[in-house]
Design brief:
Length: 128
C-alpha cells in the first residue's frame, strides 16, 4: 500500500466534496465571489473547482446519500453563513462517511494498484 486512505481523502475525496459544494452553490445562483466568501476560500479556487481543474476525479454526484448531505450543507451555508471550521468539519464528516461505506475503495485501488478492494476492509471496519 503506497497510498493510505487518509492520503486518498486529502488528495482526492475532500477536493471532490468541495468541488460539488461549489457547484451546488453555483446552481443556487451565486457568483464566484459570493461562493468564495461563503466557503472562506479564494475566488481563484472557486474558479478551478467550477472549471473541473480541481476535485474532478471523483464524481460525488453518483452517491445520492452523499450528494443529499452536500445539498443540505449548501442550504445551511446560504442561510447561516457558518465559519470555515464548521464547513471543514462537515466536509470531514462526509468524507469519513464515504470511507465507512466503501465508496472510496475502487477509486483508491485506481490511484494505488497495490490495493485490493476485495481484501482491504480497513475503512469499512474502522469508519463504517
Amino acid at each position: 500500500m503506497k497510498t493510505n486512505a487518509f492520503d486518498a481523502v486529502a488528495k482526492y475525496v475532500y477536493p471532490a466534496l468541495r468541488r460539488r459544494l461549489v457547484g451546488l452553490l453555483r446552481e443556487r445562483g451565486l457568483n464566484q465571489i459570493q461562493i468564495a466568501e461563503l466557503l472562506h476560500i479564494t475566488q481563484s479556487a472557486v474558479s478551478r473547482y467550477l472549471g473541473m481543474n480541481r476535485g474532478a476525479l471523483i464524481e460525488v454526484e453518483k452517491f445520492p446519500d452523499i450528494d443529499e448531505k452536500l445539498r443540505g450543507l449548501a442550504d445551511r451555508i446560504m442561510k447561516e453563513k457558518p465559519d470555515e471550521y464548521y464547513i471543514h468539519g462537515e466536509l470531514v464528516k462526509i468524507a469519513i462517511e464515504m470511507l465507512g461505506k466503501g465508496y472510496v475503495c475502487s477509486f483508491h485501488s485506481k490511484v494505488d494498484p497495490e490495493i485490493d478492494p476485495k481484501l482491504c476492509r480497513i475503512c469499512i471496519e474502522t469508519f463504517g
